Amino acid sequence: EVTSTFTQGLPKAELHVHIEGTLEPDLKLKLAQRNHVDIGQTTIEDVQKTYQYDDLASFLAVYYPAMNVLQTEQDFYDLAFAYLQRAAANHVRHVEIFFDPQAHTSRGIAFATVINGLYRATVDARALNIDARLIMCFLRDFSKESARQTLAEALPYKEKFIGIGLDSDEHNNPPLKFARQYEDAAAAGLHLTAHCDIDQKDSIEHIRQALEMMDVERLDHGTNIVEDPDLVDFAVRHQIGLTSCPLSNSFVSPEMKGQEVLALLEKGVKVSINSDDPAYFGGYIGDNYYALADQFALTKAQVVQLARNSFETSWISEDQKRLYL
Ligand code: HPA
Ligand code: ZN
């Protein structure tokens, strides 16, 4: 039987966590005070009461405004280091952390402020026995021109992040909108992933574009792929990683997509379990493994396979992978 002690203690990699989604109510209040930002609430309970959403759009409407409390390089450091301490307690050995520069540059925070604060936390995470890397995401509901500008601003810092991703509101914002930025990022030696959120309009078409036309190495969420056997074959043949997030799913849909995860495991797709936005969706990575294992009666062997998949589809070197596998 799989216990929460087992899921917490299992060595794992986390491949789908948004640093802005790790902003806990207590840190939000502390930063609001420190930076004299009025967020409309003054107690943890009142902040918690604003955490109401039932789909991607209503979640994002709570999520983005909260970021106003992040102002200085130290704020970004504190945010990331707090997450990394929790990740260490969850026996995360390697993490690839998403950040959304446009959510900050669009309100006047310099790109350098964001990346330097986050990067410094990843360096200090070595003392926690975690290898931490950064993935820069484009906001897909912003223009291509904004993405182009963001990539141009980011490339001078390319030693500080390992790949690019695509997040925010997927509705009418297909991966191909950013084909040019993905090409340019790949040419600069960066890894590629993209969100294909669950149960979106055009989910399958978006997955097809990302896999067949843009050469992404992973799909974030992406579990709607089970509806299309040819794409499932493609994912198996190309060892595409799918980063599923059970607790996040249960907020934006009636279910955590356990049947889909089990079906994909069975077919040999490299699906992993992740926390997405743990401060908003009620749990860190160990809780996500446990919720899924508990509700869908996973065996220990299945849970171990999910953790193996997380290392296998991570972007660490093959030499480093051998240490974990
Ligand atoms: N999907 C899209 N945008 C996001 C997500 C997500 O799961 N989490 C944070 N931003
Ligand atoms: Zn996400």
UniProtKB/TrEMBL annotation:
Keywords: Cytoplasm, Hydrolase, Metal-binding, Nucleotide metabolism, Zinc. One of its GO terms (biological process) is adenine catabolic process. Substrate binds at residue 277. InterPro entries: A/AMP_deam_AS (IPR006650), A_deaminase_dom (IPR001365), ADE (IPR028892), Ado/ade_deaminase (IPR006330), Metal_Hydrolase (IPR032466). PROSITE patterns: A_DEAMINASE (PS00485). Residues 11-325 form the Adenosine deaminase domain. The record marks 221 as: Important for catalytic activity. CDD domains: ADA. It comes from the Bacteria. One of its GO terms (cellular component) is cytosol. It catalyses: adenine + H2O + H(+) = hypoxanthine + NH4(+). GO terms for molecular function: adenine deaminase activity; zinc ion binding. Binds 1 zinc ion per subunit. Its EC number is 3.5.4.2. Its cofactor is Zn(2+). Signal peptide: none annotated. PANTHER family: ADENINE DEAMINASE (PTHR43114), ADENOSINE DEAMINASE DOMAIN-CONTAINING PROTEIN (PTHR43114:SF7). NCBIfam families: aden_deam. Belongs to the metallo-dependent hydrolases superfamily. Adenosine and AMP deaminases family. Adenine deaminase type 2 subfamily. Catalyzes the hydrolytic deamination of adenine to hypoxanthine. Plays an important role in the purine salvage pathway and in nitrogen catabolism. This is Adenine deaminase.
